[in-house]
Protein backbone atom coordinates (compact mmCIF):
# COMPACT_ATOMS: atom_id res chain seq x y z
CA UNK A 1 0.00 0.00 0.00
CA UNK A 2 2.87 2.50 0.40
CA UNK A 3 3.15 2.76 -3.39
CA UNK A 4 -0.52 3.63 -3.83
CA UNK A 5 -0.40 6.12 -0.96
CA UNK A 6 2.63 7.81 -2.51
CA UNK A 7 0.91 7.74 -5.93
CA UNK A 8 -2.11 9.47 -4.40
CA UNK A 9 0.18 12.18 -3.01
CA UNK A 10 1.77 12.70 -6.44
CA UNK A 11 -1.69 12.79 -8.02
CA UNK A 12 -2.86 15.46 -5.57
CA UNK A 13 0.35 17.47 -5.93
CA UNK A 14 0.13 17.53 -9.73
CA UNK A 15 -3.47 18.73 -9.55
CA UNK A 16 -2.66 21.35 -6.94
CA UNK A 17 0.04 22.68 -9.28
CA UNK A 18 -2.45 22.76 -12.16
CA UNK A 19 -0.66 20.00 -14.10
CA UNK A 20 -2.83 16.87 -13.91
CA UNK A 21 -1.74 13.74 -15.73
CA UNK A 22 -5.27 12.36 -16.17
CA UNK A 23 -8.94 13.01 -15.50
CA UNK A 24 -9.82 14.29 -12.01
CA UNK A 25 -11.74 11.11 -11.17
CA UNK A 26 -8.92 8.67 -11.87
CA UNK A 27 -5.48 7.90 -10.56
CA UNK A 28 -3.51 7.01 -13.64
CA UNK A 29 -0.57 4.77 -14.42
CA UNK A 30 1.84 7.70 -14.69
CA UNK A 31 1.66 8.54 -10.99
CA UNK A 32 1.70 4.86 -9.99
CA UNK A 33 4.86 4.24 -12.03
CA UNK A 34 6.43 7.45 -10.70
CA UNK A 35 5.61 6.47 -7.12
CA UNK A 36 7.15 3.01 -7.54
CA UNK A 37 10.31 4.51 -9.00
CA UNK A 38 10.64 7.23 -6.37
CA UNK A 39 10.27 4.68 -3.57
CA UNK A 40 12.81 2.42 -5.28
CA UNK A 41 15.28 5.32 -5.41
CA UNK A 42 14.74 6.04 -1.71
CA UNK A 43 15.53 2.42 -0.87
CA UNK A 44 18.53 2.22 -3.22
CA UNK A 45 20.47 5.41 -2.68
CA UNK A 46 23.11 6.07 -5.29
CA UNK A 47 21.36 4.03 -7.97
CA UNK A 48 20.42 5.91 -11.12
CA UNK A 49 16.97 5.20 -12.40
CA UNK A 50 15.61 6.32 -15.77
CA UNK A 51 12.07 5.57 -16.84
CA UNK A 52 11.88 4.30 -20.42
CA UNK A 53 8.61 5.60 -21.80
CA UNK A 54 6.76 7.11 -24.71
CA UNK A 55 5.16 9.56 -22.27
CA UNK A 56 8.14 11.66 -21.23
CA UNK A 57 5.96 14.76 -20.79
CA UNK A 58 4.03 13.40 -17.80
CA UNK A 59 6.64 11.19 -16.16
CA UNK A 60 9.50 13.69 -16.32
CA UNK A 61 7.60 15.84 -13.81
CA UNK A 62 8.40 13.27 -11.17
CA UNK A 63 11.81 11.83 -12.14
CA UNK A 64 14.20 11.32 -15.03
CA UNK A 65 12.37 9.93 -18.04
CA UNK A 66 13.42 9.32 -21.62
CA UNK A 67 12.11 7.69 -24.74
CA UNK A 68 13.50 4.16 -24.76
CA UNK A 69 15.12 4.82 -28.14
CA UNK A 70 17.18 7.65 -26.59
CA UNK A 71 18.63 5.69 -23.66
CA UNK A 72 22.27 4.67 -24.11
CA UNK A 73 24.31 2.49 -21.78
* Terminal-residue CA separation: 33 Å
Number of strands: 2
State the helical fraction. 40-55%
- Rg from Cα: 12 Å
How are helices and strands ordered from N to C?
A: HHEHE
Unreliable stretches covering 5 or more consecutive residues: none
Shape: globular
The strand order across the widest sheet is 1-2
Number of domains: 1
Share of residues in strands: 5-15%
Average pLDDT, rounded to a whole number, is 92
Number of helices: 3
Largest sheet: 2 strands, parallel
Q: Specify the structural class.
A: mainly alpha
Notes on the protein architecture:
The protein is mostly helical and 73 residues long. The protein has one domain (2-70). Helices cover 47% and strands 5% of the residues. The protein contains three helices and two strands. It has a two-stranded parallel ribbon. Helix 1 packs across helix 2. It is globular, with a radius of gyration of 12 Å. The termini are far apart. The relative contact order is 0.17. The model has no long low-confidence stretch (mean pLDDT 92).
Which terms summarize this structure?
globular, 73 residues, 47% helix, 3 helices, single chain, mainly alpha
Structure summary:
The protein is 47% helix and 5% strand. It has 73 residues and is mainly α. The chain has one domain (2-70).
Give the secondary structure arrangement, pairings included.
Layout: H1 2-16, H2 29-43, E1 51-52, H3 56-59, E2 65-66
Parallel strand pairs: 1-2
Helix pairs in contact: 1-2
